[in-house]
Amino acid sequence: MDIADLRVFEAVARTGGMGRAAAELNTVQSAVTARIRALEDALGVLLFDRHSRGVTLTPAGQRLLPYANRAQRLVEDARAAARDDGTPRGPLVLGSLETTAALRLSPLLAAYCAAWPEVDLTLRPGTTAELIAEVLAERLEGAFVCGPVNHPELIEQRIFREELALMTAPGTPSAEAALAQAGLRIVVLRAGCSYRQRLETVLAARGIVGVRLLEFGTLEAIFGSVAAGMGITLLPKGLVGPVVREGRWAVHELPPAEARVETVFIRRRDARLSSALAALLDRTRPAASLVA
Q1: Strand, coil or helix: what is 278?
Q2: Are 276 and 116 within 8 A, CB to CB?
Q3: Beta strand 289-290 with 154-168: parallel, antiparallel or unpaired?
Q4: Beta-carbon contacts of residue 39 (< 8 Å; ≥ 6 apart)
């Protein structure tokens, strides 16, 4: 068994067919089939169940797949490490909360891209839960998420401190009045959003459970729904401040213990630190301290 065998195995597992894998690998189906049979013979187990629609992984194949993925990433890391001469360049794929990207990252990333124009930066939005999963799966080099994360496989570095505020339609006198209203509805991003979880915790601390949810995919939709009186939401104060000046919303402060959150940058503890990522982290260091 070698890395080429594992590459063919991963392609078949991902595409669900020998022919589809062959097309992706720019070879013939017979070569893929022969390679898979040789790999099965070497391991002494069947890796795929064959059927008319293609193939599916056997339990043995399911156990092998994470190692095949890891081996390929290790080879890619080794190739990248050999080529990395200390000058930031090449792809840098990161994740971020949508709120953090909108509120905090633009000046930081603009200065970074100006300093290192050979870096091809990609920023993917997501919830804290989604981004943690993407970093753990090594599909992102790192991500800006709501902390603390406290995961044994991750390093987290404190980047920003935020203060959350309750956002309502105009005319609501206070946060407590907003939370105590009959038929309360909360306007939130999808499950896994850290601010949604914090709002649910704030409600639970007051004995408020079972509230109705209005779930939207963008901040713009949330702003519009709150302005229309459809419910309340919880977002960083710095993000909602400019919007509130339009007069269509009201913002209410919460006690510090409920309002304060940290944005942290996470990356795998065992992953190679590329020059591109190291240069970005150097720019965040004045405001950051190591958490774990």
Answers
A1: helix
A2: yes
A3: antiparallel
A4: 1, 5, 8, 9, 47
Is residue 49 within 8 Å of 56, Cβ to Cβ? yes
* Closest listed residue to residue 219, CA positions, set 206, 234, 199, 209: 234
Count CA atoms closer than 13 A to 95's CA, side-chain side: 25
Q: Which helix (H) or strand (E) holds 197?
A: helix 194-205
Half-sphere exposure of 116 (CA within 13 A, CB side): 21
> What is the residue whose two structure tokens read 């989604």?
130
* pLDDT band per the 50, 70, 90 thresholds, residue 243: low
Burial class (CB in 10 A: 0-12, 13-18, 19+), 197: middle
Mean pLDDT for the chain overall: 87
CA 73 distance to own-chain centroid? 19
Of 97, 76, 102, 99, nearest to 3 by C-alpha is: 76
Q: In the block, which residue shows the tokens 């408020």?
A: 208
Q: pTM above 0.90?
A: no
Taken in order of first residue, the domains within the chain and their CATH numbers are 3-83 (1.10.10.10), 90-154+270-290 (3.40.190.10), 162-260 (3.40.190.10)
- Tokens 């713009």 correspond to 220
Residue 289 pLDDT:
45
Q: How many CB atoms sit inside 10 A of residue 89's CB?
A: 18
User: Given pLDDT bands bounded at 50, 70 and 90, which one contains residue 15?
Assistant: very high
